[in-house]
Prior knowledge:
Low-confidence stretches: none
Mean pLDDT: 96
Distance between the termini: 66 Å
Strand content: 15-25%
Strand order of the largest sheet: 14-17-18-13-12-20-21
Bound molecules: glyceraldehyde-3-phosphate
Number of helices: 15
Largest sheet: 7 strands, mixed
Structural class: alpha/beta
Helix content: 25-40%
Amino acid sequence: xxxxxxxxxxxxxxxxxxxxxxxxxxxxxxxxxxxxxxxxxxxxxxxxxxxxxxxxxxxxxxxxxxxxxxxxxxxxxxxxxxxxxxxxxxxxxxxxxxxxxxxxxxxxxxxxxxxxxxxxxxxxxxxxxxxxxxxxxxxxxxxxxxxxxxxxxxxxxxxxxxxxxxxxxxxxxxxxxxxxxxxxxxxxxxxxxxxxxxxxxxxxxxxxxxxxxxxxxxxxxxxxxxxxxxxxxxxxxxxxxxxxxxxxxxxxxxxxxxxxxxxxxxxxxxxxxxxxxxxxxxxxxxxxxxxxxxxxxxxxxxxxxxxxxxxxxxxxxxxxxxxxxxxxxxxxxxxxxxxxxxxxxxxxxxxxxxxxxxxxxxxxxxxxxxxxxxxxxxxxxxxxxxxxxxxxxxxxxxxxxxxxxxxxxxxxxxxxxxxxxxxxxxxxxxxxxxxxxxxxxxxxxxxxxxxxxxxxxxxxxxxxxxxxxxxxxxxxxxxxxxxxxxxx
Length: 488
Ligand code: G3H
């Protein structure tokens, strides 16, 4: 795909400037060699500021424009968009597999989940409008209260869910009447291109503006103007902080952020071993651990440690590795070229400080892949304990007293979710209450995850700002306004 158009102010503009080549880390047969997939425009400040002008113009335009448009008209635009998107399923699923190495079933799930999310958001928006636009009266003052947009939203999504999580930001922002500038993630960028026309012909000009290029070149100049009202980003806090700092009045910015997490699994002595091993396997390694919700550290009680680890380590080695379209594949090539080396560094650091690799294949490198290493005993001075690995390496600690993992969680910079495995309700009940005050979701006898998308998705401390979900995202991208009048 040689992508040469971008969407600004309702026009699909032609690009004749520099381009960035896009490669897949999935190799053809023979010796390992990344596959060339295409190229995208490498845009800069000029195009970024044009997109900002278009978004601001669309927000400020008079009556009948997007922010003041009737609810049913905005819904009609969104329905028109999603119907066209449904026709692109096969193409987008193919690109998900090639660009980010996501398995076929997971790529299909990402697409279908996104379509469902859009339809659910439309329904929720109808419901919100019915319930939130109402009259009230207190102390002789009448109020007509409603929910309105915030302004211009800059939206940046992650590479691990380049469609689903990006749209989990973009769709609610748009439907609430905001205008948007959106730059796709570095990996998973081409899969947005089949949707450019659908965006163009579904929404009024300037409501959705789509740019390509590096975040520093495109997003930073937009932030520097101080004219962005919402920074919506799923990714890492380094990028979020850097962009926030660019904004001259950052205290005015609404932040909708989904950031890092280091979700622990805590396996109690009475846990069902089959179930906890199966859930820890999915939790640590689904999509190679490249999920913010992945289990990134496992605490096992000393009484069951030996059996748990022996069975867990052999289950890891039994996972099938291959290309995303191979039937039953669980482990696939990593989309970031330097990632196996980074994971190797974490493993070496842990080995130097006294950990062992428990599984035979742990750390083996093939092409752009490194086999998941189960590391034990991990200590708190190791990088793999402190850093969000976001990849295939599993640090394990054992504990005797429950205070050990609880103290770690209290000290952690993150607070998204936890998985708790055990049976005795008298132990679990008080523990659940404690855990719920350290994170935002306690998963009982199951691995951590974001879905179903009707449930709140958020985190404490450095893990998130604002809440996403079909219900909450509409609120995160809006503000309650009202008209007041007196009973004269
Ligand atoms: O990367 C973070 C995502 O929110 C994970 O979503 O739990 O549905 O895989 P998921």
